[in-house]
Amino acid sequence: MKVLLVEDDMDIGNGVRIALGDQGMTVVWVRRLADALASLETAAHDIVLLDLGLPDGDGITLLQRLRRERQTLPVLILTARDSLSDKLLGLDAGADDYLVKPFALAELLSRLRALARRSYGYEGDTVDVRGLTLHEPTLRVTGSGKTIELSRSEYLLLSTLLKRADRVQTRRVLEEQVLTGSAGDSNALEVHISNIRRKIGDGYIRTVRGVGYVIDKAAAKGGA
Amino acid sequence: MLRKFWRAIRTPSLTRRLMLSQLGLMAAIWSVLVFLIIRDIAYTDKWYQPRLMNNRATMILAVTDALHDRPVEQHTALARIDEFQRQEHREEDSTGLKMTMLVWMGDELIYVSPGERRRVHTAIPFVIEHSVQDGRRFRTYMQSSVVSKARVVLLLPADAEAVFIALWSRGFLLLPIVITLPILLLPAWFSVWLALNPFRKVAEEVAAKGPENLAPLAYKPKHRELLQMGKSVDGLLERIRAGVERERRFIADAAHELRTPLAAMRINVEALRQRPHDAADETLLDGLVHAGDRATRLVSQLLALMRSDAAPATASQQPLRLDELAQERLAALGGIARQRGVELELDAPSAVTVTGERQGLITLLDNLIENAIKYAPAGSSVSMRVATDAAGAAQLSVEDAGPGIPVGLRERVFERFYRAPDQLQSGSGLGLAIVRAVAEAHHATISLGEPDGHTGLRVSVSFGAVSSPQPPHAPGRGSS
Predict the structure, then answer these.
(1) Segments making up each domain of chain A, as ranges
(2) ipTM for the predicted complex
(3) Residue B311 banded pLDDT, cuts 50, 70, 90
């Protein structure tokens, strides 16, 4: 993966360059807006890591120019500005994702990979969590090699939980996904979840009482 | 009690000053008037007019001459005249002011007022003289008969004592002021009180000012005397506000600027960690990452605090579903909870709406949840409850099974950078300060307590009643 890193801070730039290089990515690091534009014209990049506050201008202008030229090159913004309006500004200008400094390397890597997957059309190919595999193109979920028969609502719920594994999905979000039309039935979500559990086996879907559900990538370590 | 009274008397008061000066001036003016009247009366008195004395003396001499051959009747007539004169004079009671009459025939004193001295020195007839006799001052008038050797002398005491007595005897002129002054006191006090009302309003408003409220005075005095003061106070408030704002901006900027080096540190440590290294280095690298995380958290908390301080912003507040927001934040922090083996629970039986600012409430919820997760022992649960009380006010509480906070420290933990002693968890000491700042911006109150049935901490946040279903009323202040 070829990454264009636009970052004026020496320490961050160097750290990101080495960290991503160690992961087998090719990193071109520029520190000025003008250099970034030049590099975009001369070389092919798979993804852009863009800092917003640059010495010769705002990273947003680069983003706007890319989108004006209808380039689908994924852009991940790296910035210290964390207010909601700043985020919206970046996303509205066409950024694909937004990471606030300081960020964890693991987070940066997972977002980079997600963006790359999406841009190559691999998004949602298969997701595997502890033997439970979601195959999106065929709308199938397999457990221990066998296909699990799911209703449409059950599939939607399970695929959401699998795709966003390790992140608690709120009841509200899940209900909105599956209960269009039949709103008001507060038990419907529980019924669906218990049906799914019966089909895939216990130990996958964890309830966070009152909050929502989550599928953990790693099994619970005893106790809790 | 007595001391309090004494202090009240000793403390200078503008009202009293105005009243005393008014009373003093009135008394002085009145006294001058009285003095002028008395002097006027004194000067227009017969004793200052020889013509009147002349008539009187002529009459006495005529009687003396007419009855010169009948000494008994003569004496009786003179005694009657004398008596009349003494009664005629206003000061019949004060002997010191009684007119004395002496009548001579040649060298023989034929009449003298009862109880008076018999020797009087006079020199010039038909003139009112001032003389001193036996150490007392007198005004005397002497006149001789044109047909006989008869001679009459009239004298009236004129010393200081006499003047005092004269004044005293005209005391009825001073009476009005003595009576009216207390009656004038009440309207004077009332009018002064009315006049000082704008001052009081300004004072009350200034008293209500504080770091949270530095807006210009709402009450704009139109009075010339107060206009300048109002402007000065507004100016002072503006300068303070600018100063506070500058300081806040400085802290926010500093915190913001710290993020870039922190990010650099973190990415470099993590880049180093993913390279091959031996197990001993792992601990050191973990220490670096952990320290970096703490600094990062402190910086974002400082920013959050400065933002919640800067946003009294009722303008940006809007109705929000607190139960949904709580669900969202608990879900977002579910990862941290799982890492620490803490279970999260939300009890939100119905929709709860508050008027608030989204980012601020997120900060409040996150800090409460993170705090609870931090102190909850592994295997325990952190439970949040969101509900509406009978008065329609939103109530939020978060419970953990951690060590709790001793009663004596419950106020102090809201102070910035305060950390309870014997603290095992690392932290900035800003979490609850932020929670309080946000709560205050939302007119909410916070109270700390213990969960029912087990040790730990319960933080309760009580919002004002929301205005959507019910007609708007004053924010509720009850704490759960």
Answers:
(1) 2-119, 126-215
(2) 0.72
(3) low
The set of residues, in sequence order, having a beta carbon less than 8 Å from that of B396 and lying 6+ positions away, is B322, B326, B368, B384, B385, B386, B460, B461, B462, B463
CB contact under 8 A, A208 and B334: yes
State which residue of chain B sits closest to A83, comparing Cα positions. B359
Question: Domains of chain B by range and CATH?
Answer: 45-172 (3.30.450), 208-310 (1.10.287), 315-465 (3.30.565.10)
Is the pLDDT at B400 greater than 90? The verdict is yes
Instruction: Give me the pLDDT at residue B431, please.
Output: 84
Peptide bond into B406 cis (omega under 30): no
| H/E run at residue B182 | helix B175-207
Query: Which of helix, strand or coil describes residue A30?
Result: strand
Whether residue A11 and residue B265 make contact (CB cut-off 8 A), yes or no, is yes
**Is A171 within 8 Å of chain B by CB?**
yes
> By the 8 A CB rule, do A45 and A63 touch?
no
Q: CATH number of the domain at A2-119, please?
A: 3.40.50.2300
A window 92-111, beta carbon within 8 A of B = 101-106, 108
B204-217 residues labelled b (16+ CB within 10 A) or e (exposed): ebeeebeeeebebb
User: Which residues in chain B are contacts of A210 at CB distance < 8 A?
Assistant: 327, 330, 345-348, 384
Cβ atoms of A122 and A50 closer than 8 Å:
no
Residues linked to residue B446 through DSSP beta bridges, in sequence order: B461
Residue corresponding to tokens 């890492």 = B339
Confidence of residue B92 (pLDDT cuts 50, 70, 90): very low
Establish, for the pair of chains A and B, how many residue pairs have beta carbons separated by less than 8 Å. 122
Decide: helix, strand or coil at residue B358: helix
Element (H, E) at B80: helix B71-88
Tell me the CB-side half-sphere exposure of residue B399, using CA atoms within 13 A: 17
- Whether the CB of B71 is below 8 Å from some CB of chain A: the reply is no
Mean pLDDT over the full length of chain B? 80
According to CATH, the topology of domain A126-215 is: Arc Repressor Mutant, subunit A (1.10.10)
Is residue A210 less than 8 Å (CB to CB) from chain B? yes
DSSP states of A187-217 as a string?
THHHHHHHHHHHHH-TTSEEEETTTEEEE-S
Give per-residue pLDDT as tens, B53-71.
788 888 888 888 888 888 8
pLDDT in tens, B101-142: 888 888 888 888 877 666 666 667 877 777 777 777 777 888
